[in-house]
Amino acid sequence: MKKAYSYIPLCWISSDSLLVCNRKSQLLVHDLQSDKFELIGGLPLSSKHKLFMHFSLAARALRLVNYTSLSLDENRILFAYRGVAYLVDILQKEIKPVFNIDKGKRPLFFCHVKEGNHRTKAGIYYGDYCGNPDKNPINILYVNPETFEKKVVYTFEKGSVNHIHNVVYDEVRDCIWVFSGDFGDAAAIWRTDDSFKTVECVLKGNQDYRADVVTIYEGELWYATDAPFAPNHLMRLYENQGEWAVEKVAPLKGPVIYGGRMGDSLVFSTDVESDGIYKNRLDCLTSRKLGKGIKDYYAYLYTFNLKTKELKVIYQCKKDILPFVVFQFGAIMFPGGYCDGRIIPAFHVALNKYPLKTLYLNGDTN
Fold first, then answer.
1. Domain contains 24
2. Pairing mode, if any, of strands 150-156 and 36-42?
3. Is residue 14 part of a domain?
4. What percent of the chain has pLDDT over 70?
5. C-alpha 155: how far from chain center
6. Which of 90, 180, 223, 362 has the most beta carbons within 10 angstroms of its beta carbon?
């Protein structure tokens, strides 16, 4: 399957068949088997906001295409967009705001710990994701999955981290991992065994520990680094005689922000960006100079089979000619929720093909 649609893929609600998508601020369910759409409803946005969604350059400049989503069950998703988290009920065709994102516009990822026989408190966790160059205090938050009341469960004190990239539940060890960024000791991996009553720093102070996309397989953590000014790698974090160690599994073409688990594979894309170092404001607004960690002007879509340990590039697309800061990094984004990886919805941002469209690719990830 290789077909493009003019929508943003938000979240799977059924493995490889039903996908919630955003088309010009209208949420729909796309049935991929029948190729039919069912309207859920419109996002409660201003008329100006809805108008800008119809113009791709405005949508990119205003960051109207960035989102984070989580599948709660077969009928509901949680969707963070421009500072608000929405609960979307597919059956009731209801979209309602349930809480505000206090720092930044959205977290990069939500973590859903489901009910079960474990000590970690069930619910939704996420971390503050904002610029924060001065390393002001950054929070981990807990959201009750029934009432959607949120509370701070842990605060990284001033000077510790810039922001949180990911919060990941480890079913094998019954603990939660936290990946933070960006610079110096802020690039770190943390762990809690008691639902954030205490937090242990496992590794810090190296760009090899700076990561967004993480999965756990057979007790080991696999992640892709997100370093615009250093070489990037697929990494393995494992326990060795009671100590934590990392292994560089394979080099990557660039830093990784977007991706996730699909079946028995980790699927992710590199992005095309600068290193964030500019001579002046004009240079910042117009630069297309690549960061040292980016090999060329292409975004690469990788699959890594966790069983066979095969890493391969299944697709690539070149960055368009527009500058990074104003019109976004070149990247491929993916929906939340679970799918088995037979097909991959690849949403194109700031690339010279399929602009702000979702291209469906044959995954064959298993």
1. yes
2. unpaired
3. yes
4. 98
5. 21
6. 223
**pLDDT tens by residue, 166-208:** 999 999 999 999 999 998 999 999 999 999 999 999 999 999 9
HSE of 150, CA atoms in CB hemisphere, 13 A = 20
* Strand 163-170, strand 150-156: pairing: unpaired
Partners of residue 19 on adjacent β-strands:
12, 30
Where the chain has pLDDT below 70, the residues are: 1, 15-16, 364-366
Of the candidates 165, 175, 215, the one whose C-alpha atom is nearest the C-alpha of residue 195 is: 175
Tokens describing residue 323: 């500058």
Q: Using an 8 Å Cβ cutoff, are 192 and 204 in contact? A: no
Task: Tokens for 237, please give them.
Answer: 């974090």
Structure tokens given for 6: 């003019």
pLDDT digits over 33-78, tens only?
A: 899 999 999 998 889 988 998 899 999 999 999 999 999 998 999 9
314 in a structural domain: no
User: In sequence order, what are the beta bridge partners of 302?
Assistant: 268, 313
Rounded Cα gap, residues 131 and 115, in angstroms: 33
Return the HEC string of the chain. Answer: CCEEECCEEEEEEECCCEEEEEECCEEEEEECCCCEEEEEEECCCCHHHHHHCCCHHHHHHCCCCCCEEEECCCCEEEEEECCEEEEEECCCCEEEEEEECCCCCCCCCCEEECCCCCCCCCEEEEECCCCCCCCCCEEEEEECCCCCCEEEEEEECCCCCCEEEEEEEECCCCEEEEEEECCHHHCEEEEECCCCCCCEEEEECCHHHCEEEEEEECCEEEEEECCCCCCEEEEEEEEECCEEEEEEEEEECCCEEEEEEECCEEEEEECECCCCCCCCHHHHHHCCCCCCCCCCCEEEEEEEECCCCCEEEEEEEEECCCCHHHHCCEEEECCECCCCCCEEEEEEECECCCCCCEEEEECCCC
121: in domain:
no
Length of the chain in terms of residues written = 366
- The token duo for 332 is 């491929």
Q: Which domain holds residue 84?
A: 1-102
Spatial CA neighbour of 299 closest among 267, 345, 268: 268
